Automatic annotation (TrEMBL):
This is tRNA threonylcarbamoyladenosine biosynthesis protein TsaE. Pfam families: TsaE. GO terms for biological process: tRNA threonylcarbamoyladenosine modification. It comes from Weissella viridescens (Lactobacillus viridescens). GO terms for molecular function: ATP binding; metal ion binding.
Length: 159
């Protein structure tokens, strides 16, 4: 899908938030400034999170309680290509009773579950239109495929 505004990006995130179930892991892919945190903000607001949602770059993880499950927002950018996640216990955040959104997941591949939703945000700005994004959603397992199928039906998503 193409997004022409922050609001459109967050609308997709809101739709996804209304579909997810505990045990869902969402990997957010994209360059710096692609909209990963913006997506997460829309997602969290749709789940009733009132407090500000900002990137946990320096804390690695922010935790939010929703009425139905814990929501974890991980940003592991500062771990970098050298890794350093081995003894951090990040795999604990990917469990059957929570939902996790992960920015820069390529730095913690060994800790990730195999069944995930991938949301890739790519900037397509032009000189006269900012906030343009291409958003692609893919699934790698049966749980995430069911969610993707619902998202496609509900949102009319066309990857």
């Amino acid at each position: 899908m193409n997004s022409e505004s922050v609001e459109t990006t967050q609308k997709l995130a809101k739709t996804l938030a209304q579909i997810v179930t505990p045990g869902t892991t969402i990997l957010l892919h994209g360059d710096l400034g692609a909209g990963k945190t913006t997506f997460t903000q829309g997602f969290a607001r749709a789940l009733g999170i009132k407090r500000p949602v900002k990137s946990p770059t320096f804390t690695l993880v922010r935790e939010y309680q929703t009425p139905d499950f814990m929501l974890y927002h991980l940003d592991v950018y500062r771990l970098g290509e050298e890794g350093g996640a081995d003894d951090l216990g990040l795999a604990e955040y990917f469990n059957a009773s929570s939902v996790s959104l992960v920015e820069w997941s390529e730095y913690i591949q060994a800790d990730l579950p195999s069944d995930v939703l991938n949301v890739t945000l790519t900037r397509t700005d032009t000189y006269d239109k900012i906030d343009q994004r291409k958003i692609e959603v893919t699934a790698t397992g049966s749980h995430s495929q069911q969610i993707l199928n619902q998202l496609e039906q509900t949102y009319g998503l066309d990857n």
